[in-house]
């Protein structure tokens, strides 16, 4: 089966995450923000709730060499027509491709910019003809339109296009062919916003890790464990837990991933630690809030597959309180330095390198052999990179905009390239010279460098 994934604003991070989650599949990156995955099993819609870097995904149903309205319509009808008699069936089209889009003179309000391909595909005609066919089949329908060639996740969700009451038909142009598919699920933007801005304990001054980025980091560290065919309990540590974003998102993994299969129970034990009493208090508050809102309370009849504990520990002395060679993975965003202007970058870099080096030496003691760390390091910039910056600028640590990046002592560790070998030279993907990934938003002074490390004795 062939699936398509519409990637987020950072395609490199998004693809790295997908490669970890679907590590038995074969990926191809056909556009900057679109990946194809060939895999031999069905991917369920619920997976979208635990992959932070994907906007939408779906199944490719057909591949056309002859790109005409007639051919497209015939194919679309075969896989997207509702079989149920219902009051209303909603449908919409999204086109992803390089062909130039020409406006169509239309008397239908709102259609003007969504138009035709240079080779004669007219979305207006396609939509109206599809609507006629549905009517002939006794199905009352509504065509969901957009001012852009593609429908946003918000439009798709609000118009029920990923339910049995609708369909988003996706057309992806690649290599002189047109791939036709149907969207299975879109990113749960309401839930993510709720977990980001609705949690009761927030610390905006020290910087808040976005839940989507936390999900990506968790998958980079933990997804490979899910393919192990044996019972296990994996110890996962966040030694700079802050307000608990990584811990709470990891708790939700049980909701979105089946951790019990064929009698094999896979358990995670999460440890959140921090030197700050306030951080421990904030994390505890947010954990209770997540448990309440997502019904994660354990019972004597149904124990949870994920447990957690919180401890006040200085990361630079953590081996005094956690047993050696006992931790399977560490996922963390440490203190990134001042978030405001008016500080000397060189001094902050030096201080943070010392903190990170001491912490990493402690992590080496408590990690199991081949244990993995997914960690964020700060990248300080002379000026903010805008969203319109060249993509290569954002992935290149030698860029003139970047003044300070960290180089802590990595003795005993190896940086892992998270991109599949067949895509490491893809022009759309931007890794740093040391195979790390850069994440940032417009006007931010401090960006994030996501580093994947593996312990080597």
Descriptive overview:
The protein has 457 residues and is of the alpha/beta class. It has two domains: 133 residues, VC0802-like, CATH 3.30.2130; 266 residues, Vaccinia Virus protein VP39 (Rossmann fold). Helix content is 26%, strand content 28%. Strands 9, 10, 11, 12, 13, 14, 15, 16, 17 and 18 form a ten-stranded mixed beta sheet that branches. A hairpin with a 2-residue loop joins strand 2 and strand 3. Helix 1 crosses helix 6. The radius of gyration is 24 Å and the shape is elongated. The two termini are 40 Å apart. 41% of the residues are buried.
- Number of DSSP strand runs: 18
The largest pleated sheet is described as: 10 strands, mixed
Rg calculated over all Cα atoms: 24 Å
Poorly predicted regions: 100-119, 298-303, 385-401
What is the SS-derived class? alpha/beta
How many domains is the backbone divided into?
2
Order of helices and strands: EHEEEHEHEHEEHHEHHEEHEEHEHEEEE
CATH class of the largest domain reads: Alpha Beta
Q: Would you identify the CATH architecture of the largest domain? A: 3-Layer(aba) Sandwich
Please state the overall shape, judged from the principal axes of the Cα atoms.
elongated
Instruction: Give the overall average pLDDT.
Output: 85
Please state roughly what percent of the residues sit in beta strands, choosing from under 5%, 5-15%, 15-25%, 25-35%, 35-45% or over 45%: 25-35%
Number of distinct helices: 11
Q: How far apart are the first and last residues' alpha carbons, in Å?
A: 40 Å
């Amino acid at each position: 089966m062939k699936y398509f994934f519409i990637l987020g604003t950072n395609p490199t991070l998004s693809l790295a995450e997908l490669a970890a989650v679907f590590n038995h599949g074969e990926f191809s990156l056909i556009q900057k923000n679109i990946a194809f995955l060939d895999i031999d099993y069905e991917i369920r819609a619920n997976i979208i709730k635990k992959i932070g870097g994907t906007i939408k995904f779906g199944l490719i149903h057909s591949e056309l060499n002859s790109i005409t309205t007639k051919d497209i319509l015939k194919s679309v009808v075969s896989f997207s027509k509702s079989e149920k008699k219902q009051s209303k069936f909603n449908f919409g089209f999204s086109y992803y491709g390089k062909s130039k889009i020409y406006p169509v003179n239309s008397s239908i309000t709102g259609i003007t910019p969504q138009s035709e391909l240079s080779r004669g595909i007219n979305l207006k005609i396609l939509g109206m003809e599809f609507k006629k066919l549905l009517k002939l089949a006794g199905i009352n329908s509504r065509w969901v339109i957009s001012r852009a060639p593609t429908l946003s996740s918000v439009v798709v969700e609000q118009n029920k296009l990923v339910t049995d009451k609708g369909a988003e038909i996706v057309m992806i142009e690649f290599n002189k062919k047109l791939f036709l598919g149907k969207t299975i699920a879109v990113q749960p933007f309401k839930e993510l916003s709720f977990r980001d801005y609705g949690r009761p304990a927030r610390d905006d001054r020290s910087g808040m890790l976005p839940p989507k980025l936390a999900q990506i980091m968790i998958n980079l560290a933990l997804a490979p464990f899910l393919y192990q065919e044996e019972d296990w309990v994996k110890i996962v540590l966040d030694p700079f837990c802050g307000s608990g974003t990584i811990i709470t998102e990891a708790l939700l993994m049980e909701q979105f991933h089946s951790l019990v299969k064929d009698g094999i129970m896979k358990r995670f034990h999460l440890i959140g630690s921090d030197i700050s009493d306030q951080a421990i208090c904030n994390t505890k508050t947010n954990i209770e809030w997540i448990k309440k809102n997502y019904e994660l309370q354990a019972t004597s009849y149904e124990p949870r597959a994920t447990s957690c504990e919180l401890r006040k520990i200085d990361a630079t002395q953590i081996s005094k309180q956690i047993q050696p060679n006992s931790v399977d993975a560490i996922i963390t965003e440490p203190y990134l330095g001042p978030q405001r202007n008016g500080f000397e970058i060189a001094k902050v870099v030096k201080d943070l390198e010392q903190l990170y080096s001491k912490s990493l030496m402690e992590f080496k003691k408590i990690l199991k052999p081949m244990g993995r760390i997914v960690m964020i390091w700060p990248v300080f910039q002379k000026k903010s990179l805008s969203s319109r910056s060249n993509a290569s600028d954002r992935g290149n640590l030698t860029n003139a905009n970047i003044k300070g990046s960290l180089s802590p002592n990595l003795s005993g560790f190896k940086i892992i390239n998270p991109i599949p070998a067949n895509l490491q030279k893809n022009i759309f993907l931007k890794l740093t010279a040391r195979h790390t990934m850069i994440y940032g938003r417009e006007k931010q002074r401090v960006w994030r460098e996501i580093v994947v490390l593996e312990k080597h004795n």
